[in-house]
């Protein structure tokens, strides 16, 4: 039961090729893309930018970036698992994938915790959504992301935050979502409280023009947020029950609420924080790690 500690995101806890996982990623994008795009837009992302999308998942933001930076810019989309994005590009008939340096989008299988910096860097923009909270070495990864910025480049980090759950008045929903949070922490080391420390981790790394905002979607009315959490709960169900974090009765009740068009509550928030690298840096290609 406790022997699963030390698993990683792609070790069967989350991720993988299942249709349900692809639907989960798409629902996540439906909920969160408008806020992400608004923030990137406000930060001035535009033609000619060289951008790195870390943990791109289904690739909705990578594709938006590719459209925004245009032919004079470039986007590198990385993930441990690039199949979802490759399938999407294939479905669109896009032949530019896997052609580094040619066309606006390069898709790269890359572990952000350990692989060498993408050779297309340094970048004007580095963006990571719902990645660092799932990585126990998130502080070291943040160091890496900052080091991959060009002088004056912009970092944007988005992370889930559990605080809305703490005031939830619906016992089954709260217990199920608490169980989801606990099982992710106990298996892959997810930290849904880290985002509450923002923007300190960015300031501590010398970034300036630091800002942050919070997106708190309503989960209910059988909307995309409800679908995303229902699929996550279903994916984690066996692990939750095995660990006695919640019983089948509680999980069934929560799933029924998530499917109920009349239900509405708040699950997790998303905290978005950003900042700019110093205009002058001693960072040199080859010394970046
Ligand atoms: C919750 S999904 C978020 C996907 C996408 N960023 C989004 O917000 O729609 C997390 C993504 O991070 C990727 N990931 C997890 N660990 C990673 C690592 N060490 N290096 C690169 N990507 C990783 C997963 O494969 C998955 O696609």
TrEMBL record:
Domain of life: Bacteria
Keyword Methyltransferase: yes
Annotated Basic residues bias: 90-100
The UniProt record lists the keyword rRNA-binding: no
Occurrences of domain Methyltransferase type (ranges): 52-155
Keywords for the protein's UniProt record, in alphabetical order: Methyltransferase, Transferase
InterPro entries listed in its UniProt record: Methyltransf_12, SAM-dependent_MTases_sf
GO biological process terms on file: methylation
Region (Disordered) residue spans: 90-120
Single GO MF annotation: methyltransferase activity
Membrane spanning residue stretches: none
PANTHER family: PUTATIVE (AFU_ORTHOLOGUE AFUA_2G14390)-RELATED (PTHR43861:SF3), TRANS-ACONITATE 2-METHYLTRANSFERASE-RELATED (PTHR43861)
Protein name: Class I SAM-dependent methyltransferase
UniProt organism field: Frankia umida
């Amino acid at each position: 039961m406790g022997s699963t500690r030390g698993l990683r995101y792609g070790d069967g806890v989350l991720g993988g090729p299942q249709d349900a996982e692809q639907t989960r990623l798409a629902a996540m994008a439906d909920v969160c893309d408008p806020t992400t795009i608004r923030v990137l837009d406000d930060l001035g992302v535009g033609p000619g930018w060289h951008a790195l999308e870390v943990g791109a998942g289904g690739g909705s933001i990578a594709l938006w970036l590719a459209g925004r930076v245009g032919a004079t810019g470039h986007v590198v989309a990385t993930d441990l698992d690039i199949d979802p994005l490759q399938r999407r590009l294939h479905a669109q008939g896009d032949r530019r994938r896997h052609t580094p340096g040619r066309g606006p989008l390069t898709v790269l299988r890359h572990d952000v915790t350990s692989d060498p910096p993408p050779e297309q860097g340094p970048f004007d923009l580095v963006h990571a959504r719902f990645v660092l909270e799932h990585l126990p070495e998130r502080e070291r990864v943040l160091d890496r992301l900052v080091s991959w910025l060009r002088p004056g480049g912009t970092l944007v980090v988005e992370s889930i935050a559990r605080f809305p759950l703490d005031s939830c008045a619906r016992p089954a929903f709260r217990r199920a979502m608490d169980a989801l949070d606990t099982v992710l922490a106990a298996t892959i080391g997810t930290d849904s409280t880290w985002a509450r420390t923002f923007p300190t981790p960015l300031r501590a790394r010398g970034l300036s023009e630091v800002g942050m905002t919070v997106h708190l979607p309503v989960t209910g009315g059988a909307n995309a947020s409800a679908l995303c959490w229902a699929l996550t709960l279903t994916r984690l169900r066996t692990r939750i029950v095995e660990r006695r974090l919640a019983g089948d009765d509680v999980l069934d009740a929560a799933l029924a609420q998530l499917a109920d068009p009349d239900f509405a509550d708040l699950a997790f928030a998303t905290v978005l924080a950003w900042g700019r690298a110093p205009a002058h840096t001693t960072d040199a290609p080859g010394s970046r790690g």
